[in-house]
Amino acid sequence: MTKRFFITGANSGFGFAIAKAAVAQGHSVIGTVRSDAALSHVRAELPAVQPVRLDVTDFDNIPNVIAQAEDDFGPIDVLINNAGYGHEGVLEESPLDELRRQFEVNVFGATAVAKAFLPRFRERRAGFIVNITSMGGLITMPGIAYYCGSKFALQGISEVMRAEMAPFGVHVTAVCPGSFRTDWAGRSMVRTDRSIADYDAVFEPIRQARLEKSGKQLGDPAKLADAVLTLISDQNPPAQLLLGSDAYQLVADKLTRMQDDIEKWKDLTVSTDG
Prior knowledge:
Layout: E1 4-7, H1 13-24, E2 28-33, H2 36-45, E3 50-53, H3 62-73, E4 78-81, E5 87-88, H4 96-124, E6 128-132, H5 145-165, E7 171-177, E8 190-191, H6 200-213, H7 221-232, E9 240-243, H8 245-264, H9 266-270
Parallel strand pairs: 1-2, 1-4, 2-3, 4-6, 5-8, 6-7, 7-9
Helix pairs in contact: 1-7, 4-5
C-alpha cells in the first residue's frame, strides 16, 4: 500500500536517502528545503518529490505549510521528522547561544512540526511519526554535549508523544542512528573554536578522529532508508529503533552499566521510602 510522506530536510543526508527510497517504492513524497539552491537540487535529483520551502524554526509558519501541502497533494500518512544538525565543542568553551540554536532546530523545530500533524493524525485515527533522533539521544560522548542534550530531549518527547497518540491509532517511533556516511560530522556540523588548553589532551584527538572518519563511517544511508520503510509498514512498531551496529553495541553497553549501577546503589535508592 502506497503512502504519502512529509520529510523535513529532504535535500541531503537521511532525508534525501529516505525520499529517494520512498519514491522508488511508489510512495508520494513532499520534502522540505530551506533554500532555493536546495529546492533546485531536489527537483534535479529527485523529480518525483514535491519540494516545499520550510524553515523548521519558523514556528508560526509550520501549520500553514502543512495545511497547504495537504490541500495541494492530499492527506499525509507519514511524517519523517529529520531536519537537524550537529554541534561539536567542549561544554565549557561552547557559548550558550549555540546551545539555544541547537535546541531551536533539533528540539523546538522537530516538536513544532510534529505538533502540527498531531490533530490531523488524531482526527483521522491514523498516521506515523518517525522522529530521527540519534544514538546520542541514548548515550553521550565528550564534545557533543549540546547535540546529545537536544537528542535526549527529543527522545523523551517522542516517548510521551507515542503514549498520548497510541489511543488514536497513531504510531510514533524514535529512530536512533549510529555513525553513517552523511554530512553530520562534516559540512553540516557547527564547531566551537578551541580556547582552553586544559582540554587539549582529551578533546583534540576526538575532534581529529571525527573529522578523519567523516564520509567513511560504517553506516550506509541507503540501507537506513530501507530500514525506515520497513519500520513504517509494521503494525506494531517499537518506541525506539537503533540503526547501525555501533549504535546497538554502545547503547547495549550503557544499559548494562546502568543496570549495574542501579543494583549497586539499590539500598541507598530504596532507603528514602516512608
